[in-house]
Amino acid sequence: MAHTRFTSKTFRNNVASVSHTIVQDALLPLLSHAAKHDWVVDLEDIFLRFTYDSTFRVIFGGNSNNLSIELPDNELLKAIDDGTEAMCLKLGKEKKLIEASKIIDKHLFGYIFSKREELNRGVEANDLLAAYMTSHKNPTTSKPTSSTLDDKFLRDTALTFLFAGRDSTGTALTWFFWLISKSPGVEEIILQELKEVLASKHGSGDIGIDEKKASLKVFNAEELKGLVYLHAALCETLRLYPPLPMNRRIVVNEDVLPNGTVVKQGTKILISYYAMARMEWVWGEDCHELKPERWIDETGKLSPEPLTKFFTFNAGIRNCIGKDMAFTQMKVVVASVMFNFEVGLLEGHVVKPKPSLVLHTKHGLKVRIKERASLI
Ligand code: HEM
Fold first, then answer.
1. CA-6 nearest atom, ligand 1
2. Which CATH superfamily is domain 2-228+323-371 in?
3. Angle between the 151-181 and 95-120 helix axes, to the nearest 10 degrees?
């Protein structure tokens, strides 16, 4: 059901509109404030708040506002982080995980309860939770039947989406800005692409200048559609810094891998996407470089060839169903932030991965923000 929904036009439009709204109302004002007051900000924290809020609104509907100048504490967010950390460290029965589970249950069962009440009152909703709840309809009345899905199933599903949507895209954005801070050439080409989009939209640069002076520019889904180089740069980031750096599979029936290796039933296979990105025989001698060009063919279109060795979203039947959603979110954030601001890494700040289930940074991404002089 989620698969069908994620590929529907209504869902895609909702993702685009939610992302646009949060960038416009929360992300850019926050960065603008940081620029005016010469704040040092942790972009990883900011991006994780952005992806949490946007994923939350898509799943539960309603509002979630964790991206304001005060950067408020959020009990559920903290519980998800504590719970994940405890699980990664295999502290399954430890107090921290038990406490985190209780808080997660309190919030998620609360949302489920309110949503059910809303639906019973006939409130229209186009979020994912409502879609799950109304997926069992009475064929005559088209109303949800009494045998709606069990609350524990709904809690687990909602938590999966919240976690899958927030951490993956939030860390991808973090690594993107870090890589770009060390690759001014790539940044220049992306900015050029953005300028061209605006120029073609407005026929001449003039309207773009007025628009920029009046307020900060937020790109919409239509403007972001044909940005080949930006898409390629995001794929390059996801190749080098896959948000899920490792995956695991268990052999169901004995089989032979394409290189002749026999794998016995029950064998656990660990696949390191992070290591694969750094293997010369897979990506070539320049595998360590950020090179968006490897994703573009000689006609200037995105080349499908690298996708055959790109498993950041997994492959096959259990691949990621949120891939398009992630690209929509990342593009609106990257284009709007880069167009309006210069992001400078804090001098002396070390950025390196933290070994964990998701490829977070060890110390965050500390930066200073400057408003960019008009590009048009
Ligand atoms: C850059 C962003 C993302 C990356 C790199 C990513 C990566 C992945 C990977 C590697 C898997 C396979 C996991 C496995 O083999 O067990 C997966 C599955 C999944 N992802 Fe994503 N993901 C991203 C964004 C999202 C978003 C935004 C959502 C939705 C809110 C999402 C929802 C899911 C779900 C529901 C699954 C399970 C699919 C299934 O088992 O059939 N992901 N993702």
1. 29
2. Cytochrome P450 (1.10.630.10)
3. 110
